[in-house]
TrEMBL record, chain A:
It comes from Reyranella soli. The keyword rRNA processing does not apply. Keywords: Signal. The keyword Cytoplasm does not apply. InterPro entries: ABC_urea-bd_UrtA, Peripla_BP_I. It holds the Pfam family Peripla_BP_5. Residues 1-26 form the signal peptide. This is ABC transporter substrate-binding protein. PANTHER family: ALIPHATIC AMIDASE EXPRESSION-REGULATING PROTEIN, PTHR47628.
TrEMBL record, chain B:
This is Urea ABC transporter permease subunit UrtC. The keyword Ligase does not apply. It is found in: Cell membrane. It is a multi-pass membrane protein. The chain crosses the membrane at residues 12-31, 43-64, 71-94, 130-153, 160-178, 207-229, 256-277, 297-320, 332-356. The keyword Transmembrane applies. GO terms for cellular component: plasma membrane. Pfam families: BPD_transp_2. Keywords: Cell membrane, Membrane, Transmembrane, Transmembrane helix. One of its GO terms (molecular function) is branched-chain amino acid transmembrane transporter activity. PANTHER family: HIGH-AFFINITY BRANCHED-CHAIN AMINO ACID TRANSPORT SYSTEM PERMEASE (PTHR30482), SLR1201 PROTEIN (PTHR30482:SF4).
From TrEMBL, chain C:
One of its GO terms (cellular component) is plasma membrane. This is Branched-chain amino acid ABC transporter permease. The chain crosses the membrane at residues 246-268, 305-325, 337-355, 388-405, 472-496, 502-521. It is found in: Cell membrane. Belongs to the binding-protein-dependent transport system permease family. LivHM subfamily. It comes from Reyranella soli. It is a multi-pass membrane protein. One of its GO terms (biological process) is amino acid transport. It comes from the Bacteria. Residues 1-25 form the signal peptide. GO terms for molecular function: transmembrane transporter activity.
Length: 430, 372, 537
């Protein structure tokens, strides 16, 4: 009986989608938008905020009258930081709830887990977090940064402005740090840095005793050359890491640490005064001054009823992704996935850093890169910014196996891993 | 003849349970395959996948119950055997992808390509053959259980000490599998499977078959467990549970009994894990997390420890609750789950099955009183 | 006061040119305005101009700039220095130093600096403050000049060495001078002498200076001497490294001990497999957060005492919750130890989610009081105060607990009840009450651990999850029911872990420790210190 009723709503929804043109849907059922972020378990710490942002964006859009004359309705589920559950919930959102688009995932493994589901059921996923690249799916829009939109500019900054010659690449042992460090290692070597001036260190998830590693960094840093740490340490482990750094008296002036996973949210849990001057590279900082950002911060703090609530980069990515999706739905005149996916490419919306971001044919967006220094109040001061927007390199040119690959989802290529040497789609194209 | 023997060895309620499990495993997939999508009786594929997943969990719960409920070994590491079976299956499925990976490398899976592996690690050889993988699915968890059990039971590690070392084992395995240097995909594990035995894992027919296979395996496990428990051997097992020292004094080789049932149970968990992976589409080190093992114990407790139907009911109940509540009450479902565990231990020490027999026995006593 | 005295010091050191008061102010005005305009490159130039001007106000202005306390007031474009004063900033005019009311961040534009500028300022202020009357400031100045040798500071250093009376600071000045000499174009003899001074300093900073000398010196003799000096420093440091690993091990062990000691009571002596133990630790950490939050908003001057205030409260909160758990759930489950595992696991889910609902899922900030920040040197060993206090604290808690169990009536009852319940009951001990108090004590100690762990880890709903497995390992390894076993177990596991880590890496080190525990339990199935007795279960 339950199955039957689910089925009926499904049939009705399908009928509406197929039969009617945009305006005829004015009184139609609300458009469902899936929110697939962990609200419990280890990732709740980061992902819950993104769920709240989505609820706020949907509420605001509904105040403006929704889209295509229909209201939006958020369908929130809790995948509980459990990767198989991510796939199950994604399936539930697409098949049972028939959502028009899903905003979700944080970790790479959760994205990898849902990817086959979205490809099979032809759904749309907006993925808002910086990641390792090496992927481009027709059904996913990557609104976070690829390595070249975060890591490489940060290294350039340290090399040129702080004259860093020795590098510690420290990360949590999973795919994002591994890939990013591989890319950085290749990049640094290309810039003439010798192997002995690079130290690579991996730690497990949630590592909390950093004494030995901090001592090792100190040791590596006393070689008479300016040393910097490039940190791809994942969320939870950062607080004890920075606390240990602060206690051990490693100042940013001596050994600066540039992090790719530490934003305003993570800093909210630490006393940042001892960390003054350590760096982070992102595409957005809460401290960026422009009217659209100020309006967003205000709306966010009102929505969460907390005047101290901070904003961060993945939140901005969701703002951009959501606005792009709205524009694409308007352009396509329907929420039909195929039409929206085609309409997405080329959509340009304002970002919160004071410029515009565009959806490129590789399903990644253009972004400015900002380098910020941690301040005593838990915010970042932008100390450097790329002059223009950076286009994502989803396949890194610094990795031997991906340097010949490109993604282009426009017709006629329509391929996520086109090999420019063999001229064929599908990796090596043999 | 053996089947008949086994069949007669089971109690009537267990026979019903086996038939019911088989019925689920046959009818639902058939409804999915034969009914048109518009029919009210049509079962969508995602329901099949859920049922398939529950069936695998039920098999795991049964395996836990066999050692805990009937032999008194509280294992907090059974998810490790489940995950090992899953990894063996995952390796087979990865090899089946062939050159359809992102980089189009015919030999190496994607994660090896971008970690710059030049050739396949030695332990990946053979996994392109299903028969080899199938042997490994049983062999790897069994050998681990044999090694651990051999040492632990011989040195008479019992009670919480045993629980804690099984937990240490699964925790150590989780940390090890998280390492990218292991060559098993690190945190991302294995995903994006394409084929199993030449059939696409994404086709509804394959899903229906896998769901049926899971039901069949669970039914077979129930029959095997009933045979083990019902035999003389099983009686000795229960005696070991209730008074281990006394059994030892009576001259029984307690370790042998424990070891046999522990290894059997690990093999069952491994097979369940192998069926689980193609249905959920991912295997990853977090399957080893100690919390998963504890949860498996909880399914048994909720359903009813020391019965064979209990774990099956418990696994279905808790996991269906999880599926439903994470969708319906995403903010508060942990309260509900936590409260369920507390309530069950406090008020239903024998689980749901115990509740049923309690009600029934109360009914009979009342009836008995009437004529008097 | 301090700056007034500084004025005399600086003017004598740099021989300030006398100019009329009005022109003086006007000139400083432009210099300061230059600081606030243009990009970081312009700002660097403005800083060196300000330093070269020899103005007495230069040091405080530059210090404010480095600390991010220099602002431009939006209303009238006056450059002001803002110091935190409650929720507002107390302002003073940068040029004159006169008070200029108060303001909020929103009314001001902060003058931004980056790491490079901070380094430049530090070097500049370093040479400006070599004559400061405050010994600590002079020492810092010497340190920063040592780390960032600036050949132009040589004159100032010589003057400072001549004037210095404190022998230790004089040594620091001489070391700084040696580092400066190595970067200058001094003669070969001077450099060789300087190398010896730096070698004798013998720490990591010295090694860094020596390495830089090896890289930059052209004279082969100096180069060879620098290489030899670096080798000798390295040798000294290698010896200290072993000591360092022991210290790190003890420190990790103390954390494990703190986390496990409460469990040693609830699990070890009462036999409750308490999966909610980690959540008791978490409650202690959140109590600390709440206490600090109240102190921050209402009694800011008490901040350094916040942890001391939090300790009894955390003990009470976790203890009361513990007693409630015992009365509400555990007491129905005695004799069914495995069932306690299930119930407390459910409870831990509920507690985690409750904290998540009340405090939000993200990390909460717990600050370090002054006495727990920073580090000191013991030979070449850097010991951070935070870690030191945690070691001391864990031993204190342990000792107190032993005393409570051995010397108080409650301790006697507890031991009696856990050893022989029916007999204790027959002797008139109210066993249910003792059970509740024992569980409360164990939980309360977990709460105390939470106060300490809030200093080194995330204060988040997941805090307890990170420690629960380690805690069980420690208790089981040490021997269930034996508190000394827990102490020895925690320290041993900490030290083993820290000696493995440099060779095997953090992950593999931890795996090896776990395998070691599994194998150890096979050898001694009752842990390190098994309770002796004739009972066969």
């Amino acid at each position: 009986m339950k199955l039957g009723s689910i089925l009926k709503t499904g049939v009705v929804a399908a009928g509406l989608l197929a039969g009617a043109a945009g305006s005829a849907l004015a009184q139609g059922a609300p458009i469902k938008v899936g929110v697939l972020h962990s609200l419990s378990g280890t990732m709740a710490i980061s992902e819950t905020t993104l769920k709240d942002v989505m609820l706020m964006l949907i509420e605001e859009q509904n105040k403006k009258g929704g889209v295509l004359g229909r209201k939006l309705e958020a369908v929130v589920v809790d995948p509980a930081s459990n990767w198989p559950l991510f796939a199950e919930k994604a399936r539930e959102l697409l098949q049972k709830e028939k959502v028009a688009a899903v905003f979700g995932c944080w970790t790479s493994v959760s994205r990898k887990s849902v990817l086959p589901v979205f490809e099979e059921l032809n759904g749309i996923l907006f993925y808002p977090v910086q990641y390792e690249g090496e992927e481009s799916s027709r059904n996913v829009f990557y609104t976070g940064a690829a390595p070249n939109q975060q890591a490489i500019p940060a290294v350039d900054y340290l090399m040129n402005n702080e004259k860093v010659q020795r590098w510690v690449l420290a990360g949590t042992d999973y795919v994002y740090p591994r890939t990013t460090n591989k890319i950085l290692e290749a990049y640094l070597k290309q810039k003439g840095v010798k192997q002995e001036d690079i130290m690579i260190n991996y730690t497990p998830f949630g590592h909390s005793d950093w004494q030995s590693i901090v001592a090792e960094i100190k040791k590596f840093g006393s070689a008479g050359k300016k040393t910097a740490v490039v940190s791809t340490i994942n969320g939870d482990a950062n607080v004890p890491f920075y606390k240990e750094l602060g206690n051990a008296g490693i100042k940013a002036k001596d050994i600066p640490v540039v992090a790719f996973s530490v934003g305003e949210e993570e800093l909210a849990g630490i006393d940042t005064k001892p960390l003054l001057g350590h760096l982070a590279a992102w595409n957005y900082f809460q401290s960026v001054k422009n009217p659209s950002n100020e309006a967003f911060i205000k709306a966010w703090q009102t929505f969460t009823k907390n005047p101290k609530r901070v904003t961060n980069d993945p939140m901005e990515a969701h703002v951009i992704g959501f606005n792009m999706w709205i524009e694409a739905v308007k352009k396509a005149g329907t929420t039909d996935p195929d039409a929206v996916i085609d309409a997405m490419i080329g959509i340009t919306v304002p970002n919160l850093s004071g410029g515009y971001s565009a959806m490129m044919p590789n399903h990644h967006i253009t972004k400015p890169v900002l380098i910020g220094e941690i301040q005593g109040n838990g915010q970042f001061d932008t100390v450097w910014q790329t002059p223009g927007l950076v286009v994502a390199e989803e396949w890194s040119p610094y990795l031997p196996d991906s340097k010949d690959l490109i993604a282009d989802w426009r017709k006629p290529m329509n391929c996520g891993n086109f090999n420019v040497v063999s001229g064929k789609c599908g990796g090596k194209g043999k | 003849m053996i089947t008949r023997f086994l069949w007669q060895g089971m109690g009537p309620s267990l026979r019903v349970a086996v038939l019911f499990v088989l019925a689920i495993g046959i009818i639902l997939p058939l409804l999915n395959q034969l009914m048109p999508a518009s029919n009210a009786l049509y079962v969508p594929a995602w329901v099949l996948q859920l049922i398939g997943k529950y069936l695998c969990f039920a098999s795991l719960a049964l395996a836990v119950d066999l050692v805990w409920g009937f032999c008194g070994i509280l294992t907090l590491g059974h998810a490790a055997f489940f995950a090992l079976g899953g990894y063996c299956m995952g390796m087979y499925l990865m090899r089946q992808i062939g050159s359809r990976g992102q980089y189009g490398n015919p030999l190496l899976p994607d994660f090896m390509v971008f970690l710059n592996y030049k050739e396949l690690p030695w332990f990946w050889h053979g996994f392109d053959q299903f028969w080899f993988a199938a042997i490994m699915i049983v062999l790897v968890p069994s050998l681990l259980a044999l090694a651990l059990g051999w040492f632990a039971f011989r040195s008479r590690v019992t009670g919480v000490y045993l629980s804690i070392i099984t937990q240490a084992m699964t925790f150590a395995l989780m940390l090890a599998f998280f390492r990218n240097d292991m060559g098993l995909g690190g945190n991302n594990g294995m995903t994006d499977f394409k084929d199993i035995l030449g059939f696409s894992v994404q086709s509804d027919a394959t899903r229906a078959t896998l769901c049926f296979a899971s039901a069949l395996v669970l039914a077979i496990f129930l029959v095997i467990s009933a045979a083990v428990v019902g035999s003389r051997f099983g009686k000795a097992l229960t005696a070991v549970r209730d008074a281990e020292s006394r059994m030892r004094f009576l001259g029984y080789r307690v370790e042998g009994y424990k070891l046999f049932v522990f290894v059997l149970s690990a093999a069952m968990a491994g097979i369940a894990g192998a069926l689980y992976v193609p249905q959920v589409g991912i295997i990853n080190p977090s399957e080893f997390s100690p919390g998963n093992s504890i949860e498996a114990v909880l399914w048994v407790a909720v359903g009813g420890r020391g019965t064979l139907i209990g774990p099956v009911i418990g696994a279905f109940l808790v996991n269906w609750g999880k599926t439903y509540l994470t969708g319906a009450l995403p903010e508060v479902w942990l309260f509900a789950l936590g409260a369920l565990f507390i309530a069950v231990t406090l008020f239903l020490p024998k689980g749901v099955v115990g509740l049923w027999s309690q009600i029934r026995s109360r009914g009979t006593t009342r009836k008995a009183k009437v004529p008097a | 006061m301090f700056f007034l005295r500084l004025l005399t010091g600086v003017s004598s050191a740099l021989a300030v040119v006398l100019i009329t008061a009005t022109a003086w102010a006007a000139d400083l005005q432009t210099l300061v305005t230059n600081l606030t305009t243009g990009g970081f490159g312009d700002r660097e130039k403005a800083i060196s101009e300000l330093v070269a001007s020899g103005e007495a106000r230069a040091a405080p202005i530059l210090e404010a700039l480095a600390a991010g306390q220099l602002y431009v007031r939006k209303a009238d474009n006056v450059v002001v220095i803002g110091k935190a004063d409650g929720n507002k900033l107390a302002l003073s005019e940068a040029v004159s130093g006169k008070p200029a009311g108060s303001g909020t961040e929103a009314e001001l534009d902060r003058v931004r600096v980056n790491n490079r500028l901070r380094g430049v300022i530090e070097a500049a202020v370093g040479s400006l403050t070599l004559m400061s009357p405050d010994a600590r400031v002079r020492r810092d100045a010497a340190d920063s000049l040592f780390k960032r040798p600036d050949p132009t500071a040589l004159g100032a250093l010589d003057a400072a060495i001549a004037a210095e009376k404190d022998a230790r600071i004089k040594t620091a000045f001489q070391e700084a001078r040696a580092a400066v000499v190595l970067t200058s174009d001094a003669s070969k003899q001077d450099k060789l002498a300087a190398l010896e001074v730096v070698r004798d300093k013998g720490n990591r900073d010295a090694l860094s200076v020596l390495q830089a000398a090896i890289n930059s010196q052209s004279d082969p003799e100096v180069k060879a001497a620098a290489t030899a000096a670096a080798a000798s420093v390295r040798q000294t440091l290698a010896g200290w490294e072993a000591a360092q690993n022991v210290w790190y091990g003890i420190s990790l062990g103390s954390v494990l001990l703190l986390a496990a000691i409460g469990l040693a009571i609830t699990f070890g002596t009462m036999g409750v497999i308490n999966m909610a133990h980690g959540e008791m630790v978490m409650l202690g950490a959140y109590t600390t957060f709440v206490v600090q939050d109240i102190i921050r908003t209402s009694f800011p001057h008490l901040f350094d005492a916040s942890l001391l205030i939090a300790l009894p409260l955390a003990f009470l909160v976790a203890g009361v919750v513990g007693i409630a758990i015992e009365r509400g759930i555990i007491r129905f489950l005695y004799g069914r130890p495995l069932d306690t595992l299930l119930a407390t696991w459910g409870l831990s889910l509920v507690l985690q989610q409750a904290v998540r609902s009340i405090f939000g899922p993200s990390n909460r900030e717990v600050g370090a009081p002054a006495f727990m920040s920073g580090a000191f040197q013991l030979g070449q060993l850097t010991i951070t105060y935070g870690r030191l206090w945690i070691v001391v604290f864990s031993l204190l808690v342990f000792a107190t607990l032993i005393l409570v169990l051995r010397k108080t009536p409650l301790g006697l009852y507890m031991r009696a009840v856990t050893q022989n319940r029916p007999m204790a009951s027959a002797m008139g001990i109210r066993t249910p009450r003792v059970d509740a108090l024992t569980f409360g004590l164990g939980s309360g100690i977990a709460g105390l651990a939470g106060v300490a762990l809030s200093q080194i880890d995330n204060v988040s709903p997941n805090l307890g999850q990170g420690y629960i497995i380690d805690s069980f390992m420690v208790v089981v390894f040490g021997g269930v029911g034996n508190l000394f076993g827990t102490l020895v177990g925690a320290t041993a596991l900490g030290i083993v872990n820290k000696f493995l880590e440099p060779y095997a890496g953090a992950v593999l080190g931890k795996i090896l420790v776990l395998v070691f525990i599994i194998l150890f339990i096979q050898r001694r199935p009752r842990g390190l210190f098994a309770l002796k007795g004739r009972s066969v279960e």
